UniProtKB/TrEMBL annotation, chain A:
Keywords: Monooxygenase, Oxidoreductase. Gene3D superfamilies: Ribonucleotide Reductase, subunit A. It catalyses: propane + NADH + O2 + H(+) = propan-2-ol + NAD(+) + H2O. Residues 420-451 form the YHS domain. This is propane 2-monooxygenase. It comes from Pseudonocardia dioxanivorans (strain ATCC 55486 / DSM 44775 / JCM 13855 / CB1190).
UniProtKB/TrEMBL annotation, chain B:
Keywords: Monooxygenase, Oxidoreductase. This is propane 2-monooxygenase. Residues 1-26 are annotated as: Disordered. It is an enzyme of class 1 (oxidoreductase). It comes from Pseudonocardia benzenivorans.
C-alpha cells in the first residue's frame, strides 16, 4: 500500500481554482447552469467538504460493494424468493422502481452539472464521485428489476415509467427535474443534497430497508442499504454550499430554496413511501408507521439541521406536521380508487387488523377515512366493484402534479374549505392543492407557468379520445398494465368467503 | 368503467428497448433508452418549455449540427457500465498500488536530483489545473450527451481525469518530502499556471474548451483534439523525460494513465463511426470542429514540451517536435476516418 495517507496529499487536488483570463467567468459559469447569486469567485473557493475520499479508495470500496450486492441478487434469483413475497409488498417495490430507478440515473446528470458548474474544484471533485454514485444507483436499480421481468411483467416500469405520461411519472419527473435534472449547480446543492438526500432518501432507503428485512426481501433490503452508504457521502455537498451562501448575505435565498424543495419532496414521498409503509407492507412486518418514520428521519433531522445552520423552519411547518396525519391517507384512498391509472397494484390494506393498526397509529382514522373505506368495502362485498372504479379524473395540482385532496383536508378538520387554491397568471388559471404548492409557483412563476398538468392536457384536447380509456392510453397503460387490487379484494371478505363472492362479482 | 386484467407475456428485456433476439447484456440493460428526455416534446424537462435550462438543452443538444436518427445505436467498445468500470479501475489501481509500493520500497526518491524536482515544480505540478479542466469538460459532455451510452463513457472519462490528478498530487507530495517543498506549493503552482508563458497556450485552449457548449463541438474539441493531443505530452512524453531523469516511478505512473487515455480514444473513435454512418453531413461537422481546435491544441502541446525540454537530462530519442505531434494526431484522426 502506498506510504502516504490521503490527508498528506489530498489538498493539492482541491487547490485547483484559478482566475479566468481568456474567457469571462460568466461564460464559464452561466446563470442557467450555475446561479452563483453574485458571490465572488474567491468566496466560493473556501468551499470545504466534510468528507473526503480518494479515487483509489473509491474504486476499491465500490467494486467490493457492487460484487456483494450483485452476488446476493444472483443467488436469490435462482430461488423462488420473489414468488413468495407478499403481494402488497411487491406492489411497493414495483412502485419504488418506477419512481426511483431512472431518477437516480438522472441524478448522475445533476451531479455532473455540479461537477462542471460547481464553483470550486473541491466541490467539483465531490460531485464527480456523486456522478459515478448516481450512475451506480440508476443502473443497479434497473438491473435488479430486469432480473425479475420473467416473474413480474410490471417490473418493466422500472425503465418505462419515465418514458410515459402516467400521472405519477409526471409528478416524479416534475419534482426531480425541478430538483436536479433541470436545476443549476448552486440551487441543486441546497435542494438535492441538503434538502433531499440528507432526509428523504433516509426515509425511503433506511426506512424501507428496515421493512424489507422484516418482510424477508433480502434482495431489495441489501440493495437499498448499499445505495444509502453512497448517499451519505455525496449528500455532503449541501452543507459547504449553504455555509457560503449564508456567509455572503444569502440567507433569505437559501431559505427559499430549501423551503421550496422540502415541500415538494414531502408531497411525492407521502405518495411513494407513505402508501408503501402504511398500507402495502404486510401488517406483521411493519416496523414503524410512516408518521413515526417521518418523525425520526425528517422532523427530528431537519429541526437539528436547521438549528445548526441558524436557519428558520419552513414557514409552513405547522401545516406540514398536520399533513402527516391525513395527507397520505387521502392519497391512498385516491390511488386505490384510481388504481387503473398506476403501474402497480395498490393494496387496499383494509383487513380488520390493519384498520385497528391505522386507528392506533392515527387516532381518528376510523371516523374519517374509515368511513369512506366502509362504503368501498360494502360495494365490493355486494358485488358492485364497478362503483369503486373511476368514471372521470380528479384535478391535479399545477405544482406537485398529485391529485388535489383538499376535500379530505377539509373533512379531517385541517382546511376551512374543500376548494382547491386558484391563481390567475398571465391569462391562465392554475390549480393548487395547498398554500405551499401555490407559494412555490408564485415565488418563480416563469419556471412553472408554461407547463401543462395532465388535466390541462386532457381539458385542452391533447388526450384523445377524452375518456378514461383514452387517458389510460395517453398514460402508457395497456389494459394488462393498469393497476388492480393487489389482494384481489380478499381483504373485504374476512373469514375467507372471498373466492365465492368474487366469482359472483 | 371496468378493467379486465390479463397476464402480460414475459419479455426478454425492457419494452422500450424494442424487440431483441437474445437476452441483452448487463451493459445494454443498464443503459439502453435511459435518455427519455432527448428530443422529448414539448421540452426535455418537466418544467416550462421556455425555462432557461430547457432552452439550453434544446439549443446545445437537440439543436447541435451533430445529429443522427438514433443515438441509441452507439456502443462503447469497452462496454463499461458502473459495475464493470469500478471493477476495471479497482484492478488498475491495484496495479498502480503495486508500482508505487515497489519504488517506495527501494527508496526511489532519494536517488533523484533537486534539479529534476525543480523541473517537475514548473512542468508537472501545475498540470493539475489543466487536467482538472479536462475533467470539467468531460462532465459537461456527459450531461449533454444524447444517449446514456455516450453520457456514461464521458462520465467515466471524468473519473479517469480525477484519478490522474490524484496520483499527480501523490507524486508531488512524495517527492517534496525528499527536499523540494516547492512541489506542493499551491500558490506557486497556480502562479505558474496563470503567468508562465509556456503554460498560457494550454490555459487559453482549456478555458475556451470550457465554453464550447454545443454537444457535438464539445465532443470533437475535447475527445478528438484537445485531449488526444495533450495526452501525448502529459502521459507519453512526460514518461520518456521522467525515465531519462531516473524517475521510473513517474514514468510508470504516466504509462498507467495512458491506458485510460486509450480507452477514451476507443469510444471516441466508435462515436465518430456511429455519427458518420448516421448522417451525411456529420463527417464535415466533426472535421470542421477538429480543424478549428487543432492549431491551438498543437500550440498548447508546444508550450508543455518546452517545459519538459528544461529537464536536466534530455531523453533519447529526443522529444517529439510539433510535426511529430501533428503526425500522431493525424494518425488518430485517420483511425477515426477523419482528417485529410
Amino acid at each position: 500500500m502506498p506510504k502516504l495517507n490521503r490527508s498528506e496529499w489530498y489538498d493539492l487536488t482541491r487547490d485547483m481554482n484559478w482566475t479566468f483570463r481568456y474567457v469571462e467567468e460568466e461564460q464559464v459559469f452561466p446563470e442557467a447552469l450555475s446561479n452563483g447569486r453574485g458571490i465572488p469567485a474567491e468566496e466560493w473557493w473556501r468551499w470545504d467538504e466534510p468528507y473526503k475520499i480518494s479515487y483509489r479508495e473509491y474504486v476499491h470500496n465500490q467494486s467490493e460493494k457492487d460484487e456483494s450486492a450483485y452476488s446476493i441478487n444472483a443467488a436469490i434469483g435462482r430461488s423462488n424468493h420473489f414468488e413468495n413475497l407478499d403481494a402488497g409488498w411487491k406492489s411497493g417495490i414495483v412502485a419504488h422502481y418506477g419512481a426511483i430507478a431512472i431518477p437516480e440515473y438522472l441524478a448522475s446528470i445533476g451531479e455532473s452539472r455540479m461537477g462542471r458548474f460547481g464553483r470550486a474544484a473541491a466541490w467539483r471533485n465531490m460531485a464527480t464521485y456523486g456522478t459515478l454514485d448516481e450512475m451506480r444507483h440508476g443502473q443497479i436499480q434497473t438491473y435488479f428489476p430486469h432480473t425479475l421481468l420473467d416473474k413480474e411483467a410490471r417490473m418493466d416500469w422500472a425503465h418505462k415509467a419515465f418514458h410515459t405520461n402516467e400521472w405519477g411519472a409526471i409528478a416524479a419527473r416534475s419534482l426531480f427535474d425541478d430538483m436536479f435534472t433541470a436545476n443549476d449547480a448552486v440551487s441543486m446543492a441546497l435542494q438535492l443534497t441538503f434538502t433531499f438526500e440528507t432526509g428523504f432518501t433516509n426515509l425511503q432507503f433506511l426506512g424501507m430497508a428496515a421493512d424489507a428485512m422484516k418482510v424477508g426481501d433480502v434482495d431489495f433490503g441489501a440493495l437499498i442499504s448499499s445505495i444509502q452508504t453512497d448517499e451519505a457521502r455525496h449528500a455532503q455537498q449541501g452543507e459547504p454550499t449553504l455555509r457560503i451562501l449564508l456567509a455572503n448575505g444569502q440567507k433569505e435565498e437559501a431559505q427559499r430554496l430549501i423551503d421550496h424543495m422540502f415541500w415538494r419532496a414531502w408531497h411525492l414521498f407521502a405518495l411513494l413511501t407513505g402508501l408503501s409503509m402504511d398500507y402495502y407492507t404486510p401488517l406483521e412486518h411493519r416496523s414503524h408507521s410512516f408518521k413515526e418514520f417521518m418523525n425520526e428521519f425528517i422532523v427530528k433531522q431537519f429541526m437539528e439541521q436547521f438549528r445548526d445552520f441558524g436557519m428558520d423552519l419552513p414557514w409552513y411547518w405547522e401545516q406540514f406536521l398536520e399533513e402527516m396525519d391525513w395527507y397520505h391517507h387521502a392519497l391512498h384512498l385516491g390511488v386505490w380508487f384510481w388504481r387503473p391509472t398506476v403501474w402497480w397494484n395498490p393494496d387496499a390494506g383494509m383487513s380488520v387488523e390493519e384498520r385497528d393498526w391505522l386507528e392506533e397509529k392515527y387516532p381518528g382514522w376510523n371516523d374519517t377515512f374509515g368511513k369512506w373505506w366502509d362504503v368501498i368495502t360494502e360495494n365490493v362485498r355486494s358485488g358492485n366493484v364497478d362503483r369503486t372504479l373511476p368514471e372521470t379524473f380528479p384535478m391535479v395540482c399545477n405544482m406537485c402534479h398529485i391529485p388535489v385532496c383538499t376535500p379530505a383536508g377539509h373533512v379531517t378538520g385541517h382546511f376551512a374549505s374543500p376548494a382547491p387554491l386558484l391563481v390567475d397568471y398571465e391569462g391562465r388559471r392554475y390549480t393548487f392543492c395547498s398554500e405551499p404548492c401555490k407559494w412555490v409557483f408564485e415565488s418563480d412563476p416563469k419556471r412553472f407557468a408554461g407547463h401543462k398538468s395532465l388535466i390541462d392536457r386532457f381539458l385542452g384536447g391533447e388526450v384523445q379520445p377524452p375518456t378514461v380509456e383514452g387517458a389510460l392510453r395517453y398514460m402508457g397503460l395497456s389494459p394488462a398494465e393498469c393497476g388492480t387490487d393487489a389482494d384481489d379484494y380478499a381483504w373485504a371478505f374476512p373469514g375467507g368467503a372471498a373466492g365465492e363472492i368474487r366469482r359472483a362479482v | 368503467m371496468s378493467i379486465t386484467p390479463r397476464a402480460r407475456r414475459a419479455t426478454k428485456t425492457w419494452s422500450k428497448s424494442g424487440q431483441v433476439r437474445r437476452k441483452p447484456s448487463p451493459y445494454e440493460i443498464t443503459g439502453s433508452q435511459f435518455h427519455y428526455h432527448f428530443r422529448r416534446e414539448p421540452a426535455p424537462f418537466e418544467l416550462s418549455p421556455d425555462t432557461p435550462i430547457n432552452e439550453w438543452y434544446l439549443k446545445h443538444r437537440e439543436g447541435s449540427p451533430l445529429q443522427i436518427e438514433d443515438w441509441e445505436t452507439f456502443r462503447d467498445p469497452d462496454k463499461l457500465n458502473y459495475r464493470s468500470y469500478v471493477s476495471l479501475q479497482h484492478q488498475r489501481e491495484t496495479v498502480m498500488d503495486g508500482i508505487v509500493d515497489e519504488y517506495e520500497r527501494r527508496d526511489h526518491d532519494a536517488t533523484l536530483g533537486a534539479d529534476w524536482a525543480a523541473t517537475l515544480t514548473v512542468a508537472f505540478a501545475p498540470a493539475r489545473f489543466a487536467i482538472h479542466a479536462l475533467q470539467m469538460a468531460a462532465l459537461y459532455l456527459g450531461q449533454v450527451g444524447p444517449s446514456a451510452f455516450i453520457t456514461n463513457a464521458a462520465h467515466f472519462q471524468a473519473g479517469d481525469e480525477m484519478r490522474r490528478i490524484q496520483w499527480l498530487a501523490y507524486r508531488c507530495k512524495s517527492l517534496s518530502l525528499a527536499g523540494t517543498p516547492e512541489l506542493v506549493s499551491s500558490t506557486l503552482a497556480r502562479n505558474t499556471w496563470e503567468n508562465d508563458e509556456r503554460w498560457q497556450p494550454a490555459r487559453k485552449l482549456l478555458e475556451e474548451l470550457l465554453i464550447a457548449y454545443d454537444w457535438g463541438e464539445a465532443f470533437a474539441a475535447l475527445n478528438l483534439t484537445v485531449k488526444p493531443v495533450l495526452d501525448i505530452v502529459l502521459n507519453e512524453e512526460l514518461a520518456l523525460v521522467a525515465e531519462a531523469n531516473g524517475d521510473g516511478l513517474l514514468a510508470s505512473m504516466q504509462r498507467e494513465h495512458a491506458h485510460d487515455s486509450e480507452r477514451s480514444q476507443r469510444w471516441s473513435k466508435a462515436l465518430v463511426a456511429t455519427a458518420v454512418a448516421g448522417a451525411d453531413g456529420n463527417r464535415d461537422h466533426l472535421q470542421k470542429w477538429v480543424d478549428q481546435w487543432s492549431s491551438a491544441a498543437y500550440d498548447a502541446a508546444d508550450g508543455l514540451r518546452s517545459l519538459l525540454a528544461d529537464a536536466p537530462v534530455a531523453p533519447q530519442p529526443a522529444l517529439l517536435g510539433r510535426s511529430d505531434i501533428v503526425g500522431r494526431h493525424e494518425a488518430f484522426l485517420a483511425s477515426c476516418e477523419l482528417g485529410r
